[in-house]
Amino acid sequence: MPSLDAFGIVCADIAKSVKFYNLLGLDFPDAGDDHIEATAKNGMRVMLDK
User: For residue 27, what pLDDT band results from cuts at 50, 70 and 90?
Assistant: First the structure.
């Protein structure tokens, strides 16, 4: 059965978006300016792109 395992969000300011998603419990590692990923506790990958 197909399942959703990742989703990407395009954002204007990755640093501000990381701060917001940190409040929701996602921990993003230090990364580049245009792409960053975090893995939620349930295994879902969240990708932020500029």
Answer: very high
Whether domain 6-49 has CATH 1.10.730.10: the reply is no
Q: Please, are residues 47 and 31 in contact by the beta-carbon 8 Å criterion?
A: no
37: three-class secondary structure by DSSP: strand
State pTM to two decimals.
0.83
Q: Compute the distance between CA of residue 46 and CA of residue 36 in angstroms, rounded to an integer.
A: 8
Sequence spans of domains, the chain:
6-49
AA identity, residue 15: A
Measured between alpha carbons, how far is 2 from 5 in angstroms, rounded to an integer?
9
